[in-house]
Write a structure and sequence with these properties.
Radius of gyration: 20 Å
Structural class: mainly alpha
Number of helices: 3
Helix content: 55-70%
Number of strands: 2
Distance between the termini: 15 Å
């Protein structure tokens, strides 16, 4: 599977086997889901505090809405990444891990 990334005017190509891509994508999807659920929970708890301090109700309502938008966004993006894993560019951390693995095998990347 070819993954492209544009960096400082150059186009880089990386080749990742499908099983490795599936493993990487599963970690990313899990992280996006966790963040989405955390944002939704935080928005819910902000609404709980809404009844206790009525003078700050508008600000808490806006913050809670923003948290829900982020939560739904993260959950939606996790579903997108789950369905279309091949559209995921390699992160800098993953590229460094791949380069370290290639150095251990004493192989150069072409």
């Amino acid at each position: 599977m070819r993954v492209t990334e544009k960096t400082s005017g150059q186009l880089l190509y990386s080749y990742i086997c499908p099983s490795c891509l599936e493993e990487i994508n599963a970690k990313r999807v899990r992280n996006y889901r966790v963040w989405g659920l955390l944002y939704l929970a935080f928005g819910f708890f902000l609404l709980l505090f809404l009844g206790f301090k009525s003078e700050e109700a508008a600000g808490l309502l806006v913050c809670s809405f923003i948290c829900w938008v982020f939560g739904v966004g993260f959950l939606g993006y996790s579903e997108y990444r789950k369905r279309y894993p091949w559209e995921a560019p390699e992160t800098v951390y993953e590229r460094n891990l791949r380069k370290q693995a290639l150095q251990k095998m004493d192989v150069e990347e072409v």
